[in-house]
Specification:
32% of the residues lie in helices and 17% in strands. The protein has 302 residues and is an alpha/beta fold. The longest helix has 18 residues.
């Protein structure tokens, strides 16, 4: 299953090097914008400007207080994100109970679900054509707080601190029969998530495309040609196939697509990003490709 990587941040995190994070394989990033009827995140503007400037799939989230007015909370969120939202921007309702229950107090499960529906519909009306989803826990899903069919960003931390590669290799969680679109699998050292789409398909979805790009039909395996085969300037259909697959998995460091059947500096940078995404670091992540990462990329024949 194709996946891509992301993080989310709030005022608790300082300024990030978003371009460096993108180079390391991050494809999407979400920032806290607001909370309740009046709360605003102090670092939202800094975070979201950096996310957008780096070319990541951007998103913002609002921390919910279901025992307050949903339209007032939606209005607070809308005002916070309006200067930055546009085509391809995603919106998320952070629906989680404080440990003392103060933001859920006095509300039934049915009332919370109605509150969520109202918040979502109000935000969707403010940003036509833009995606709106919910971040919530297994307990909230079990309690029926989320309307069916809502895009789900699901937090569950089975290991504590963990690398992206561990989450990518694990089975997709299915809380209460839901199929999450995004899984936040750790909060250490920052909130890390994987999306169950390729980077290209996530960008298309965020931009309003309802169907993901179809996968190539019955791709054939190109045997690993050996490290010495990969020299700059080599021309082969295999190189074009490698180019297309690296773009599809979100490792696009190409400044131009011209002569994509010839190995060049863009291929090197993109493949090194892929090897970092596979969990390699230091010298092990450098060009040329290794057989293990080549096999995982699964180059189709052309």
């Amino acid at each position: 299953m194709a996946t891509c990587r992301g993080i989310d941040v709030s005022a608790y995190q300082g300024t990030q090097s978003w371009t460096a994070l993108k180079a390391d394989g991050i494809a999407f990033a979400f920032a806290k914008a607001s909370e309740g009827q009046k709360g605003r995140d102090a670092r939202f503007a800094t975070h979201i400007k950096g996310i957008k400037a780096a070319g990541l799939v951007p998103g913002a989230y609002h921390f919910a207080w279901p025992n307050q007015d949903p339209k007032a909370e939606a209005a607070n969120y809308i005002a916070a994100v309006k200067p930055y939202a546009g085509k391809g921007f995603t919106h998320w309702l952070d629906l989680e109970r404080y440990s003392d229950g103060r933001n859920y107090r006095g509300k039934t499960a049915a009332q919370i679900k109605t509150w969520v529906q109202t918040w979502i519909s109000t935000v969707q009306s403010a940003f036509p054509g833009q995606r709106v989803g919910v971040y919530t826990s297994a307990d909230d899903l079990k309690s029926g707080h989320v309307p069916a069919g809502t895009p789900l960003w699901y937090p569950a931390y089975p290991w504590g601190a963990a690398a992206y590669s561990k989450a990518e290799a694990a089975a997709k969680p299915k809380p209460s029969g839901w199929s999450p679109m995004i899984w936040q699998f750790t909060s250490q050292p920052v909130d890390r998530s994987i999306c169950y789409m390729s980077a290209a398909d996530l960008r298309a979805w965020a931009g309003g495309t309802t169907k993901p790009t179809p996968a190539p039909s019955k791709p054939k395996y190109e045997p690993f040609p050996g490290a010495s085969w990969f020299k700059e300037g080599r021309k082969s259909p295999i190189v074009a196939a490698m180019h297309d697959r690296l773009v599809a998995v979100g490792c696009n460091h190409y400044k131009s697509s011209r002569n994509k059947d010839v190995i060049g500096s863009g291929d090197k940078a993109s493949y090194e990003a892929w090897q970092r995404k596979c969990g390699y670091s230091g010298a092990a992540a450098k060009w040329p490709p290794g057989k293990a990462s080549w096999d995982k990329l699964h180059i189709p024949n052309v």
